[in-house]
Each structure stands twice: as C-alpha cells, then as structure tokens.
Amino acid sequence: MTAPRLLDVAAAAGVSRATASRVLAGTPRNVDPELARRVEDAARELGYRTNHSARALRTGTTGTVGVVVPSLANPYFVQLADAIAQQVRAAGGQLVVSDAANSVEIEAEQIETLLGGRVDGLVVVPVSATASGPAVRAAAKRAPVVLFDRWASGSGTVAVTLDNAAAMRLLLDHLDDLGRHRIALVAADQASSSGAERLAAFTAARGEDATTVLLPSFTTDAGRTAGRRIAERRAAIDAVVCGADVLAVGLVSTLQRSAVSVPGQIAVTGFDDTEILELLDPPITSIRHPLAAMAERALTLLQSTARDRAETVERFAPQLVVRASTDAAA
Amino acid sequence: MTAPRLLDVAAAAGVSRATASRVLAGTPRNVDPELARRVEDAARELGYRTNHSARALRTGTTGTVGVVVPSLANPYFVQLADAIAQQVRAAGGQLVVSDAANSVEIEAEQIETLLGGRVDGLVVVPVSATASGPAVRAAAKRAPVVLFDRWASGSGTVAVTLDNAAAMRLLLDHLDDLGRHRIALVAADQASSSGAERLAAFTAARGEDATTVLLPSFTTDAGRTAGRRIAERRAAIDAVVCGADVLAVGLVSTLQRSAVSVPGQIAVTGFDDTEILELLDPPITSIRHPLAAMAERALTLLQSTARDRAETVERFAPQLVVRASTDAAA
DNA sequence: AGAGTGTGGGAAATCGATCTCCCGAGGAGC
DNA sequence: GCTCCTCGGGAGATCGATTTCCCACACTCT
C-alpha cells in the first residue's frame, strides 16, 4: 500500500517513465494524444501524486515562497500576507509566513531560517529602513528577494511599496475640502520607511511646526497614548491623521472617552484600511493599498531572476476610502 | 560558484560522504571527535547548507507542518497559528498556514493542497463540527492529522481542545460572585464544536429559557447586531457572556453607543483572550486558552504515528482573566 | 528508390543526502 | 599468540522525478 510512483503509472500505461513525466508535468513536448490519455487515466486510477521532494531535488525549485512581516499582531500585515498567499497559490505554490516580532534580530533569524529552508524566493516587509538592510542584502545573495510595503536602505533589492506621499496628500486634501485645516499627525515607528515617509510628507505639506505626535510603535496602545495628548489640545485641532489604522482605533476610543466627538470636534483618519476599522463607531476613513496588484508585481519580480536589479523603489497609487470619521454624511 | 554539496565538505575534510552526513545530520553513530571537528570546520568554511529537497526525498519527511484555520480575519486564529508555529520552529520545522474562509468547501481544498504539497502532518481547526468530518477523515488516510481547538464528528481523528464547559462555568461563577444573576449569552457559529459546546454549557447551567442571542458567525459585526438586541432588553439583563472576543468587542462598542454603561449596567465577558480586547474601554474579561500547551500536545500527537487512535477529544483547562468589563476594580 | 527531415518516445544519467551493508583495525580474553 | 568482538568509517545503493541524449520510424523530395 505504498504510494504509487511515476514508474507505476508508466507501467500501467505501458509507456516509459520519461513519457509519463512529459504528460503529467506538462513538458512542452509533443506526445501522442492516445498515449497521453492512457497516462492520465492510469494516474487517476492509481491515485498518483507527484512527489514534490523528488521534483524539487531534480529541478532545484520548491515552489514555496517565504514572507517575513514585522508583526502578525497587526492585522494589516495579516491582510498583506494573505494577498501574497493568494497570488502564490494562484501560481500553484505555497507560502510560508514568519513574524519578526518587530525586531531586526528576529527578522534576520527568520530570513535565515526561511532561506536555509526550502524557499525559492523571499518577500520581506523590513522592520527598519536602516537596520534591516544588511540581512536583506545577505539574503539576496542566496535567493531572489523582494521588499514589500517598505524599503530598507542598503538592501540592494527592489521594493514594491505604496506611494506614501500621494496617500498623505489624498488625506490632507480630503480634510481641507471638509474645512478642516488645523490638522495634527499621529505617527509611529519612524524607523520604518513607511512611518518616515508619512511623517515627511505631512511635514512637507503642513510645515515644520504643525502638530505631530510621534509614537514608538504601530500598536493600539500607542494610539491610546496619542489620544490623551490630542484630547488635551482639542481646542487647537480639528483633524488627526494617523499613520496606521491600529493607531486610529486606539485614538478614537480614547477621544470618545474624553468626550471629544468624532468627527464633530475632531475628524480622524487611519491608514491601511484594515478590517478593524469597523470595530468602532464611527467607521474610520482610511487609505487602501492596492495589495493584490502589489503582490502580483512582487511575485513577478521574484521570478524574473534579474538579481542585479538596482536598489529601486516602485510606488503604487493609494486609494482614499471615506467613512464617517471624517465625513459624517458618508 | 554553485552551492557546496555534502560531497565537497567530505572532500575538504578528507572523509567520505557517509561520515560527513553522520556528523552534520547528527546520526546517533559514534564518529571520531577529530574527524567530526574536521567535518564541521570544512562545512563552516564552505558555507555548507544541507539541501532539504534531497534530504526529504531520501528520508521521506519534509519537516513541514500545515495548519488550516477557519479564518485569519479572526485574531484568535492568528494567535493560535502563532502558538503552533512556535512549537514547530522549536522542533526545527516550518509551518504553512491556510485560511479556509469559514467555508467547508474551501477548507477541503486547502487540506488537499497542503497534503498534495509537502507536509508531514496537518493541524486542522475544523470549520464545522459535522460537515468538516469527511475531508478530515480522507486526509487522515494520507498523513497524520490532529484537530485543534474544535473537533469534527466523523473525522476519525484526535482533537486537542479547550474544556468549553469548564470555561463557561468559570465565567458564570465569576459573574454570580459579582452579584450578576440575569445573564445572557451571545453565541455564534453553532456549526462549530466550540460554538455548540459553549451554548450547551450555558443552557445547562442557566436553563432553557435564559436569554440567548444566536448569531451566524464569529465577527465583530455580528457582535454589533447582538449589541442592539441586548440594549433593547437592558432592563432584564445585567451581564452578557460572549462566545468570542470579536463578538464582545462589537457588543461593547454598541452598548456604549446606546448609553449602556459597561460594567455599570451590564457586565460583559469575551472568550479567547485575544489582544483586541485592549482596543476598548473597558478592557474585557475573557477566557485564556493554554495555547502553548495545546500546541505542544498537538505536535506530539502528530509525531506519534498512532494513526489508529480513536476519535477522541482531549480537553485542556481554561483560565479566567478578569478585567474591568466585569469588575470595575480590576 | 535513396537521401533527407522531422517527430515521438525510450534508456540512462542526474539531482544530493542518507542508510545499509561490509571491511579493517585495534583491543580483550583465553 | 590466536581468535573473537567491537567500533569506526567507506563504497555503493537508494529515494522518485526530470531531462538529456539518441534511436527508430514515417514521410517527403529529387
């Protein structure tokens, strides 16, 4: 009762292993349709499944892609990983996801494990724009690597990201249109490229002395802290742009607790358009990433073995999703 | 510049491939310490990495475990998968996670993909206590399978779960101790074993005519709906037990919006102790699963090839985590 | 009819690590 | 001093699919 091998299928169909392989693996080689049918029938009858280890050994590819994200506790990264998983599966592969626990060291370990393991390529959402570079660069020598959502300097690798500057402009213009001009930014994780870019874009648009609250990490708890500070200055502010949804959720709940109405007194926006936005009343305006398109592009880049591609950053267009936290009519 | 093979290491160390393999793979066979050192040095120097495809082909095991969860949109399942990932990595393996999108059909597909793929064993959190059985049973013929967190009848497989009845008792006793006796249950997904068990335990304790609100799915939105219904009956109720944290979150936010104070007028408990509990004020009392211990047990079961083990359910003891949603002093 | 062209399909090498023999050397026992 | 045993370690088979030759046959063209 051992599993049937290609040899068994070939024998049952009365052909050689070579022919059976050509038929089942779909090698672009002409095979007599009659033989092909016999092989397929035999395979079906025997319940044949190709042995991936053997194929991997012979072809040198595993059909598995690895992803390293900063933290799976942030639902945005879960969504992101899911978008990549969709693409990978559509291509008949598997995805292995690792969590870097927001630590550059653990990130390096995870990258190492995945590479030492059995992946054809790696998609990395780097924890830090500076400190993640070396590990990624080292990894890129051993397998194709693409950065995703964030870049890391010194990585020597392409990055597929959102156009954060454009996103910030969308948000600010939207708030301006609503007559909100005293806008504060609540930003986190300046060490990440996305955090830094969002802050930079905000500062560029509103000037150095616009109110900003900088937090260490993209967590809801940090959003709470920000909420307290914003509540104190409620008189001077009529809108808050948050650098991440998780921040916005914490912020809104804290504001409401302080009897600040949203969007009545202060409008709030998030960033990333995760599902947790629906946790609160009101639902929160946010920026949607074109994750499917980005994931597709990332996988295309992984496959094109152009490993000498320069350290470039591709930016995808964001989309503004208006909800009641900025426009009560929405 | 091709990757070094075991042969190269053996040559560099002046030994045979067999010896090099014994040293590097740690086969329990005595090897001269001097030779072992030479092999290790050579391996390090050459930057040797064992080719997992070759090893997998030869040994017939891949070192990869697959997990299928009902939905990664529910943070509890993300935590659960993470707990399993920890254990698997500790054992030097990899984890592949799949999302069944709360559908029995997609679940069957994912199981099929993982098995066809390259996993040594499968951990499944079945979507349905009845409908998931056949797919699991079929899978169990091809590879070791362990159910996790929920069981499925007809699966012919062991399940490692929480003792939901005990958990419900913990919650009800806690509420009783606080003087809350008019308790309602908000439950979801009766098709899952956990949903059904929680409802059954509640009914057993409080009687058939205790207030229950049944919802189709474990989502925050469902929690909102429940919130509206509970708010209507606020006079008759002083506590609500939710069958899942995501429900509690939606419920609390809706109650508060309806000017029902928590825990003042109505105490609320969750289930699963996920991190989103901290999203709201007040933090929500919940039940913590001993996920690490459960994951460890599940992997032990996977490894013991006792595939003829009967269809049994192992239940782990829950832990009550008291927070301000029931006891404002907490 | 013979040479040239093309096409389907088989035999055997190959991927790299592991594992089963089996041999040789050194030590113990009588 | 000889036999037996133990233990380290090497040669080669093996896992199963892919892929590279290369042969054989059929058909066309001169």
UniProtKB/TrEMBL annotation, chains A, B:
CDD domains: HTH_LacI, PBP1_LacI_sugar_binding-like. Gene3D superfamilies: 3.40.50.2300, lambda repressor-like DNA-binding domains (1.10.260.40). The keyword Iron does not apply. SMART domains: HTH_LACI. It comes from the Bacteria. Keywords: DNA-binding, Transcription, Transcription regulation. Residues 4-59 form the HTH lacI-type domain. PANTHER family: LACI-RELATED TRANSCRIPTIONAL REPRESSOR (PTHR30146), TRANSCRIPTIONAL REGULATORY PROTEIN (PTHR30146:SF138). This is LacI family transcription regulator. It comes from Kitasatospora cheerisanensis KCTC 2395.
